[in-house]
Every structure is written in C-alpha cells, then in structure tokens.
Amino acid sequence: MAVRLLISVLIISLFSFTYGSDPGPLQDFCVAVKDDEAKVFVNGKICKDPNMVSADDFFFPGLNMPGNTSNPLGSKVTPVNVNQLPGLNTLGISLVRIDYAPYGLNPPHTHPRATEVLVVVEGTLFVGFVTSNPADPNVKNKLFTKTLYPGDVFVFPEGLIHFQFNVGKTDAVVFAGLSSQNPGVITIGNAVFGSDPPINLDILTKAFQVDANVIKYLQAQFWWNID
C-alpha cells in the first residue's frame, strides 16, 4: 500500500511539473484562426492551414507606443496575447505593456490561467499580491508588497489577487510576461459590483457585512476596464 501511495505521489508530482495552464504544442506551430472565422469551438483556438501561415502571424508592432492613460484609473494595459498575435496559439506565453500616469492604478485583479512576471522600465511602482484563504480560519490572507524601481522584477503567482500603483510624480512603464496564451483577467471590483446582471443585493450585503445602501452605491458606479 505504501509503495502504491509513493508511486501515485511521484506521478502527480511529475504531472504537476510538466503540465501548466496551457496544453503543450503537438507540432512546430498552430497559428490561431480568428474566432469569427472558425467553424468549430475548441479549448483554445483551431489551427490555420500551415501552408497559409506567414511571418506576420508571428509579429506584433507598436509596443514602443505609450498607452492612453486618460481614464479614471490612470493606467492602460496593452495586451499581446493570442487574440492580437495568433502565432502564440499553443505556446503558453503572452505579454503586456502597462502605462501609468502619476498615481495611476492597475486595480486589484487576478489572472485565472497565468503567473505574471513584471519588469519596471520607467517610474516607481508599489505592487503587491494577497495569498489565498489559509487553512486556519483564524489566520488572515497575507499581503506581500514591494516598491519597485527601473530594472526591478516582481512575480505574481497564478490566480492570486494583485495590483500595481504608481507612487511617483512621473509616468511609469512596465512590461510583463504571462504563462498562458490567454491568461484572462478578473478585475475584482468590476466583477463583484459591475456584473450584468448584478449580483443579488442580499448576497453582497451579507458577504461584505455592510448596509444595502453601500452596495447600491457601489453597483451604481461605472467600473472601468483598462485593457
């Protein structure tokens, strides 16, 4: 019995190291077909005919151009995932450029399918992430934070809530790699208070232990998406 258990643990461990959020490619490349041109729906995207593939399928221009931060949050995410760069299909990687105005914020959010590693190019950012719920209900979720400067790198583990805030008086720029061709984004405030249709008032008042008028006020706000 002990030997079987040990073998099972070893198999699970090996599987964990060799399988990520995205499946591995089974050929040199699988350039994505646009969703509106696909005849079937699959987990990911179907492949373009290899004979029709060109260098442009692996190319994306313009990340040298700053994003427009003229919005209530003062930040802009420019993604380069499989929707912008079809050659990323099945490769398990993508990236973003994020621009921040002074005191601009990339609000608390998660990437359900990717770890994110971020490098600061310009400016000063205060960043952090929060751990998942501890096994002990008497222990609070732990917050990890760091102030970053040009050249600094920080990693946000897959699925955990994280944020970036420009604490400087000048613009800030970062580039970040993500371990999925389509990492997804769930912005916490938008999802909870800006969903369509809205989450039932009784659920949110009980969950947050606040007066119903507070929830109504939050649901009435315009929840801005920066990507």
Automatic annotation (TrEMBL):
Mn(2+) binds at residues 109, 111, 116, 162. GO terms for molecular function: manganese ion binding. Residues 1-20 form the signal peptide. Its main location: secreted. Residues 61-216 form the Cupin type-1 domain. It is found in: Secreted, Extracellular space, Apoplast. Belongs to the germin family. This is Germin-like protein.
